[in-house]
Specification:
119 residues
């Protein structure tokens, strides 16, 4: 949950920073085998992509980022009935649930593009 909160805080600092931070977290977890629930690691990663470390630290301490994450989760469950990770929502209406082959994503995108051409 702490990594989600931190990502939410970095997102407020800019979309470009958020994208870089997102990939930094993934690399820290899957390549460097770091504990992304560790606050210092999350703050170091934020600083490494150019985010304001002190601002993020204060926002995490305040606790409102956790509330924002919970609200987004509740909305996803209510609106899309999402209960699994990963779940990807395409076009606000098509769901791909679970760890699926790349071809499933490609087929879903191709189907949505074909539908868009028909309208």
């Amino acid at each position: 949950m702490k990594a989600l909160e931190a990502a939410k805080g970095v997102e407020a600092q800019g979309e470009d920073l958020f994208i870089r931070y997102h990939f930094a977290i993934l690399e820290a977890l899957f390549v460097d085998n770091l504990d992304i629930s560790d606050l210092q690691i999350l703050l170091d990663l934020a600083a490494s992509v150019g985010a304001d470390r002190d601002r993020l630290s204060e926002e995490l301490k305040a606790g409102y980022l956790r509330q924002a994450i919970r609200a987004e989760h509740d909305q996803a469950v209510k609106q899309f009935r999402i209960h699994s990770v990963p779940t990807v929502v395409f076009g606000g209406r098509r769901l791909v649930v679970g760890a699926v082959p790349r071809e499933v994503y490609k087929r879903t995108i191709d189907d949505l593009l074909a539908e868009a051409r028909e309208t």
